[in-house]
């Protein structure tokens, strides 16, 4: 059994209010997501959501971690994968799924053997992984770029013009609780999830990608009347408590993968903040 997991406790608004920059970063920021030839999970106590990334230059087997006390990783879990690298393969109990860049895979509970590999070690796959507890075994399903639900949001005038792609949502694939998708900001637009929202029924993790060299994203969190910020670099993730907004402004445009879990599968169940009310 491997010990490659780090636990993050569920902090309350009362504690977070008093945190300084480094404390906030230690609590919510995941600095190193993508691991070459290994998987380093961050296990959040918010909805027991797990986040990792694997770059398989050599084949990598999905192993369970001590925290789960399970025979195998997916014994009581489901897994969502989005590839942000070169073409790769995910082997799931004898069936191979080829994932090109920006393609996704949902793996249902109960699958024992999962192996990640790349077509070319010179241009390896980069599999971003989100996993949540599951009570039922739904079929494994690949979500290609044409299966995705695409929504255009925002406007250039408010610097929030963006394309939202729903990969793992209940209208595309049967899931227990995991939802995942990807949002890309248009050139000149910098604000994601603005107007900001809270969904106390679900926690969320944002994974920022396509951040150009020398640029950063300032991620906003906290209750709507008590916000904090965390400066983030390319390919870093941030945990959003259920009670928190999760919004960001980049010094350029960028993309991010969102993943969430909790009480319902209704993507649009959000309490949207009135922008002038933010504090
Ligand atoms: O609950 C939904 C998530 O926060 C994201 O899907 C929002 C998002 O990508 C956006 O508005 O830019
Ligand atoms: Zn959200």
UniProtKB/TrEMBL annotation:
Its cofactor is Zn(2+). Catalyzes the isomerization of 5-dehydro-4-deoxy-D-glucuronate to 3-deoxy-D-glycero-2,5-hexodiulosonate. GO terms for molecular function: 4-deoxy-L-threo-5-hexosulose-uronate ketol-isomerase activity; zinc ion binding. Belongs to the KduI family. It comes from Seonamhaeicola aphaedonensis. This is 4-deoxy-L-threo-5-hexosulose-uronate ketol-isomerase. One of its GO terms (biological process) is D-glucuronate catabolic process. Pathway: Glycan metabolism; pectin degradation; 2-dehydro-3-deoxy-D-gluconate from pectin: step 4/5. CDD domains: cupin_KduI_C, cupin_KduI_N. PANTHER family: 4-DEOXY-L-THREO-5-HEXOSULOSE-URONATE KETOL-ISOMERASE. It catalyses: 5-dehydro-4-deoxy-D-glucuronate = 3-deoxy-D-glycero-2,5-hexodiulosonate. Zn(2+) binds at residues 197, 199, 204, 246. The gene is kduI. HAMAP family: KduI (MF_00687). Binds 1 zinc ion per subunit.
């Amino acid at each position: 059994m491997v010990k490659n997991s780090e636990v993050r406790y569920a902090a309350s608004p009362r504690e977070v209010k008093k945190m300084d920059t480094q404390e906030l970063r230690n609590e919510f920021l995941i600095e190193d997501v993508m691991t070459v030839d290994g998987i380093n999970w961050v296990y959040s106590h918010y909805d027991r959501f797990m986040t990792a990334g694997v770059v398989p230059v050599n084949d990598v087997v999905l192993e369970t971690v001590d925290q789960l006390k399970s025979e195998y990783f997916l014994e009581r879990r489901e897994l969502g994968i989005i590839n942000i690298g070169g073409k790769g393969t995910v082997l799931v109990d004898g069936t191979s799924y080829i994932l090109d860049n920006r393609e996704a895979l949902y793996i249902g509970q109960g699958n024992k053997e999962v192996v990640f590999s790349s077509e070319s070690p010179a241009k390896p796959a980069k599999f971003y992984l989100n996993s949540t507890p599951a009570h039922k075994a739904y079929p494994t399903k690949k979500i290609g770029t044409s299966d995705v639900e695409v929504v255009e949001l925002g406007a250039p005038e408010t610097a929030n013009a963006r394309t939202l792609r729903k990969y793992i949502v209940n209208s595309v694939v049967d899931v227990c609780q995991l939802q995942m998708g990807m949002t890309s900001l248009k050139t000149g637009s910098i604000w994601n999830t603005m107007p900001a929202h809270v969904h106390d029924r679900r926690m969320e993790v944002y994974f920022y990608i396509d951040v150009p060299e020398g640029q950063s994203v300032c991620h906003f969190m906290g209750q709507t009347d008590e916000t904090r910020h965390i400066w983030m670099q390319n390919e870093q993730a941030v945990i959003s408590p259920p009670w928190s907004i999760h919004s960001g402004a980049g010094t350029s445009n960028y993309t991010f993968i969102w993943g969430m879990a909790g009480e319902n599968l209704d993507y649009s169940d959000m309490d949207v903040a009135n922008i002038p009310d933010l504090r």
